[in-house]
Each structure stands twice: as structure tokens, then as C-alpha cells.
Amino acid sequence: MRAILHADKEWGIGKNNSLMFRIPADMKFFKETTTGNVVVMGSNTLKSFPNGKPLKDRLNIVLYPNGAKREDCLVVGSLEELFAEIKKHPPEKVFVIGGMMMYKTLLPYCSEVLVTKVDAVGGADAFFENLDQNPNFKIAYESAPEETNGYTIRFLTYKNLNVKPY
């Protein structure tokens, strides 16, 4: 399982249950990486999508205790249920996409974290753990900085050196 996100200089990942930045290069990377795969999220992330609809062309698994079952995505009520569903898929095809509590809960189980790092401060109210200060994570890939939509971004892949089995 991997996590995918964008973060500002302070590891901020969201504001008011929404993205802080609308950067086409980041959105394109996210879509290309996750399409045809499994995306795992919490209920607030699902609610943040247009009309609360899941992402197209992906199996959307939503951890939503006491949430109503839906036809358009797979709603699970517990971590045990979530892990049982995730195990049905190759780990490299499963992406945690938010929100903050899902990232915090599932980070130890992620073999990699794909981060679009934005060289700006977005006024976040939701944060991701600073992987540069976590001894279990090392940068495995870092792109050259690129200017896009008025922002400087870099694509990074962090490798988890101590993946917890699920």
C-alpha cells in the first residue's frame, strides 16, 4: 500500500476539508497514478469530492464506521474490514488518498509515500507527518523543481524502511 498527497512547506495537506492548491501537474500525476487502482479514504475525503461522488475508474474503499452502504463505492466499518478488503489487491495498486486521520492511521503500513511538495504555505488546518524527520522514511526519488501555475513543485517518493504488516 502507498500513500499519495500534496503538501506545503509545513506539511500542510488541506484546509476546510479541501485541497489548498489546484495545480494541474499535481492533479494529472494523481489521476495517472491512481486510475485503474484502489483508492482508500475516510468519509470526509469522500464528502469533499464534487457531489460526494467517488473517483471514476478506481475502486473507492471508504472507511466510514456506521456509514450507509453504497452502490458506487465500498464502505467498510472498521480497520479490520478495511485490511481484509485491501488484502484482495496487490499492494502496489492500493493508494491511501486522505484525509488526515486515514494518513495518520495507515502511514506505518505504507511502503511508499508519493508527495507533491509545494514551495508555499497554504494556511492548512490538516497536516501530514513530516517525513524528513521520521527515521523510518528516506527519500528514494526527488524530481527537479518545476514552475507551474505560479508555484514551484517537486515530486518525491519516500520509502518506508520499517513497513508494518496488515
Main sheet? 9 strands, mixed
Question: On the 0-100 scale, what is the average pLDDT?
Answer: 96
Radius of gyration: 15 Å
Q: What's the total count of β strands?
A: 11
Distance between the termini: 10 Å
Unreliable stretches, pLDDT < 50, 5 or more residues? none
Main structural class: alpha/beta
- Tally of helical segments: 4
Write the layout of secondary structure elements.
Elements: E1 2-7, E2 12-14, H1 24-34, E3 38-42, H2 43-48, E4 59-63, E5 74-76, H3 79-86, E6 94-98, H4 100-106, E7 112-118, E8 126-127, E9 137-142, E10 146-148, E11 151-160
Parallel strand pairs: 1-6, 1-7, 3-4, 3-6, 4-5
Antiparallel strand pairs: 2-8, 7-11, 9-11, 10-11
Give an overview in words.
With 166 residues, the chain is an alpha/beta fold. It contains four helices and eleven strands. It has helices spanning 24-34, 43-48, 79-86, 100-106, and strands at residues 2-7, 12-14, 38-42, 59-63, 74-76, 94-98, 112-118, 126-127, 137-142, 146-148, 151-160. Strands 1, 3, 4, 5, 6, 7, 9, 10 and 11 form a nine-stranded mixed β-sheet that branches. The protein has a two-stranded antiparallel ribbon with strand order 2-8. Helix 2 (43-48) links the parallel strand 3 and strand 4 (59-63). The N and C termini lie close together (10 Å).
